Amino acid sequence: MYDTKYHRASSLDEAAKIFASADDGAFLSGGQTLLPTMKQRLAAPSDLVDLTHIDGLSGVSVDGDTVKIGGLTTHYEVNQDNALSKACPALARMAGWIGDPQVRHRGTIGGSLANNDPAADYPAAMLALNATIHTNKREIAADDFFTGMFETALEEGEIVTAVSFKSVDKCGYEKFRNPASRYAMAGVFAAKAKDGSVRIGVTGAGDDGVFRWTEAEEALASNWSADALDSCDVDSSGLMSDIHASAAYRANLVKVMTKRAVSSAD
Amino acid sequence: MAKVSLTVNGKNVEKDVEDRTLLVQFLREDVNLTGAHIGCDTSQCGACVVHVDGKAVKSCTMLAAQASGCEVTTIEGLSGGGDLHPVQAAFREHHGLQCGFCTPGMIMAATDIIKRHGTKLDEATVRAELEGNICRCTGYHNIVKAILDAASKMDGAAKVAAE
């Protein structure tokens, strides 16, 4: 790891101020992606601004139909939250499939969303749940937030403070893991809203990161069952192709994972 | 330089270290506790697992400066001195190791697994929970056996203590 300067911020304003005065700063949350990347010398921020000691950015609240999760909430906390397990069980389950237990104790939902890894789980859920990403400056719809591989709508110095969404009628998440890295080769979050509309978020497969599979959304809106997908096919252009799986293989995986997500939805 | 002040195995430790110092380097090189091992450079192997404020974490994926103010427990402090911790004893009894390199991380992960799951622990759960700990010798069989045995013994001991 190249040399860096560690700062511990006690408020969002202080974090923004330290970031602004740094040459090439980075915000540090759970650090489960950033620190390994720095160890490999693939990232070398001059300054790290630790956000984890800022009050009020952690925890899950369920208020009627509205679910809100603080940006500093760890994957472990999301997985274990009782209210969330009732309001959106698939999201709680999904958090328990990220990384390993030690990573889930440190990694946070805000960090995962800001990083927007093309194989991360949370982005698919946020798209499917039509979530709003809250920052220290504004609110951004999930549809506008994920702009490409490792790219988001976040501006320099902008911090994810929370996410919120309306609870849905049913949702499910299934992923096919790469046997070595355990990251999703295709992960699908399927959500049926209370008005009957359907949103499908797909991770691990797209060349530009997470995306919605609109053809499946239409088919499932008129018939919420795995069978409804028999006549749908994923266009493999724009899907990732690598040593692990071709684009055509991933296209099939997306369809199979969508069927499974619909079947397991609760 | 960062001033790091934390508790390691119940003792206060205060040192000035480079900001980029990883917690595992700090423990090994500045506190001279070499039980937590560095087995990979990619946060995958789990040989470095310690407990920070009661939760198992990979000490290679946390800066010492981030741990300032925290309570850290390493394999050296697990038993509290004297007898082996029940998980350590179970690893010995069931031969849950061959070369031993992964063992400190395995045992620190195992105690965390038992703490979180208690009596509900079964073989499938143990295997799933060991996702972040790699052993290249044993095939995990005796590790899983040791953890299940320790969990049942610790549950029995807790029941006796409660009576």
The largest β sheet of chain A comes out as: 5 strands, antiparallel
Reported by name, the CATH topology of the largest domain in chain B is DNA polymerase, domain 1
What is the number of domains of chain B?
2
Global shape of chain B: globular
Oligomeric state of the chains present here: heterodimer
Organism (chain A): Ahrensia marina
Domain FAD-binding PCMH-type (chain A): 1-170
GO molecular function, one term (chain A): oxidoreductase activity
Keywords (chain A): FAD, Flavoprotein, Oxidoreductase
Feature tags:
heterodimer; A: 266 residues; alpha+beta; Uridine Diphospho-n-acetylenolpyruvylglucosamine Reductase, domain 2; Uridine Diphospho-n-acetylenolpyruvylglucosamine Reductase, domain 3; Enolase-like, domain 1; five-stranded antiparallel β-sheet; B: 163 residues; Ubiquitin-like (UB roll); DNA polymerase, domain 1; 2 domains; 37% helix
Structure description:
The complex is a heterodimer of chains A (266) and B (163). Chain A has 266 residues and is an alpha+beta fold. Chain A folds into three domains: 5-50, Uridine Diphospho-n-acetylenolpyruvylglucosamine Reductase, domain 2; 60-166, Uridine Diphospho-n-acetylenolpyruvylglucosamine Reductase, domain 3; 170-264, CO dehydrogenase flavoprotein, C-terminal domain (Enolase-like, domain 1, 2-Layer Sandwich), CATH 3.30.390. Helices cover 32% and strands 24% of the residues of chain A. Chain A has helices spanning 12-21, 34-39, 75-80, 82-87, 89-95, 101-106, 109-115, 122-128, 142-145, 214-222, 247-264; strands spanning 5-8, 25-28, 47-50, 60-63, 66-70, 132-135, 139-141, 146-148, 151-152, 160-166, 170-177, 184-192, 198-203, 211-212. By secondary structure, chain B is of the alpha+beta class. In chain B, strands 2-1-5-3-4 form a five-stranded mixed sheet, sandwiched between helices. In chain B, a hairpin with a 2-residue loop joins strand 1 (2-8) and strand 2. In chain B, helix 2 crosses helix 5. Chain B is globular and about 45 Å long. Chains A and B meet through strand 1, helix 2 and helix 6 of A and strand 4 and helix 3 of B.
